[in-house]
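Recall from the previous lesson that a structure prediction takes nothing but the amino acid sequence as input. Here we apply that procedure to ATP-dependent protease from Streptomyces incarnatus. The sequence below is the only information supplied.
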Amino acid sequence: MTTVRLPLFPLNTVLFPGLVLPLNVFEERYRAMMRELLKTPEDEPRRFAVVAIRDGYEVAPSAPGMPDPTAQPDRGPAAGFGPDPLKAFHGVGCVADAATIRERADGTYEVLATGTTRVRLLSVDASGPYLTAELEELPEEPGDEAGALAEGVLRSFRQYQKRLAGARERSLSTGADLPDDPSVVSYLVAAAMVHDTPTKQRLLQAPDTASRLRDELKLLRAETSIIRSLPSLPAFELTRAPTSLN
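The prediction returns the following tokens.
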């Protein structure tokens, strides 16, 4: 078992390998993380881990609020994640490599990172200025018939794109330049589909590429059928959580 300890950045979203993640870093705990990452030489990867939040707040409360208007908000690296941060996060995340970390005049940071490797969350340490985690790297196994499944997913994804573009009255890419590597296809489609965090998390932690593609094929066919009969799509994420500032 290969393990690694990395800074931990919890978000209300799921990061997939190969996908780009832009971040607006303004909380002090994550600014401290970026200052530390900047100490890494530019020719070496500046890595941190992204996990989706299961139960907690992406941005820690900064003022008294409900249900007690006099209660002071928690402070520190685990603020907003309860007494046991490990329970607040989904168990599988993704390592991110920060290609760009740019400090603004006000001390906040503009970060552009890319997902690289899936990891399993083993433990969380809140003793420092930001969260760190012990992580187990997860290999990406192809599974049975991944190639054939990827072809089917791409066909269904193109139909899904067309239906989605029609429902939203805007254009999407034709998908002609989509990749043909099964694992890349599985992650790209998982990130591109309009689904909630639990569904995307399920796709991220699929046991192998073929299993992820089979799940995506079912989701795409079901969603395409639903979109075909709907005049518009619900903005489901607006009802689930506050707008993310990251």
